[in-house]
Known about the structure:
Blueprint: E1 2-7, H1 12-23, E2 27-31, H2 41-54, E3 59-64, H3 68-74, E4 82-84, H4 88-98, E5 102-106, H5 112-124, H6 131-144
Parallel strand pairs: 1-2, 1-3, 3-5, 4-5
Helix pairs in contact: 2-3, 4-5
Amino acid sequence: MKIAVGADERLHVVDVILDHLAEEGYEVIWHGPEKGDTAPWPRVAHTVGEDVATGRAVCGILFCWTGTGVSIAANKVRGIRAALCEDAETARGAKLWNNANVLCMSLRRTSEVIAKEIIQAWFDTAYLPNPVDDGNLALLEKQEG
C-alpha cells in the first residue's frame, strides 16, 4: 500500500514514523526535505494531497510545526479531507465519521509514542457508510464546487 508522507522539516519524529511505516510494510512516497533542510509547507501539503486525490497513494500523512498549516493547505486539494489529530481517538473519529484521507500531525506537540498510536488508530479504522455521515460528506463535496 502506497502512502504519501510529507513534512516541512525532517525532524526525528518524522524519521521514526518513516521507519515505522516501512517496518509495517507500507510503501512510502516521501515529499519533503532531507535532514537539516526545510521545504515550504504549502507545497509539501499540496503534493501529498495531489498524490492522494489522483490515487498515486491511498492516503497521506503530513507534519508541520503545529500541523495546522499542512491541514489547511492539503484541504485546498479537491477530494482531500485532511484532519489534524493530536491523539489516537481523534484519528479514529476522523476516519470513522469523516472518511479523512490525509492525517496531519504537529511536529511540536507529537511525541514518537503518540505519533505511532495515532497512526495505528488511523490504519485500524475504516469509514463505515451510514445515512448521516454520507449526507454530511455529500454536502462537503457540494461545497468544493
